[in-house]
Amino acid sequence: MPEPQPFAILAPVPLVHLESSTEVLATEASVAFGSNSYEVFNKVDELRDGNPVRVLIYASHEGAEAQPSYMVKWRGWYVGQVWNDDGRHPEEKFRPPTALSDTPSWMTFWHVSELEEMDKKHWFPISKVPKFKGGWTKLKPPRGPVLVGLPSALE
């Protein structure tokens, strides 16, 4: 992988989708997660100049507000996004099997390569993720993907 950018993406993803992503990554180079936060990914695409960007993922909890104590346990590389007007990925083979029954409502699908759950000793709370140029406030953790600074442990 190339040198990491000075920023990363912090994103919540349902644990069931993270766990079933291994099935996709057994045959494909990346897995796609749905989002309506297209502005975030457009900004990342503008800044990354075609290079992969570190993705920090914490398991989201259905219907619950994110808490500063939630732990970043997964990481990967953002490699691009795919738009589709009908709310579904144009190539379902990139979607986690558990996401295939989702109601088609996503504006964009962000692709992650080399997705892995980190060793427990490398987990850290989302409150330790630094801001990037105005970014998110640690008192109100994000409910969707956001641009963040790259934690020093990952530089």
Summarize the structure.
This protein has 155 residues and is of the alpha+beta class. Helix content is 14%, strand content 32%.
Give structural notes.
- The protein has 155 residues and is of the alpha+beta class.
- The protein has helices spanning 15-25, 38-48; strands at residues 7-14, 31-35, 53-60, 71-83, 108-117, 124-125, 146-149.
- It has a single domain (7-154), classed as Archaeosine Trna-guanine Transglycosylase, Chain: A, domain 4 (Roll), CATH 2.30.130.
- The longest helix has 11 residues, at 15-25.
- The protein is built from two helices and seven strands, in the order βαβαβββββ.
- Strands 1, 2, 3, 4, 5, 6 and 7 form a seven-stranded mixed sheet that branches.
- 32% of the residues are buried.
- Helices cover 14% and strands 32% of the residues.
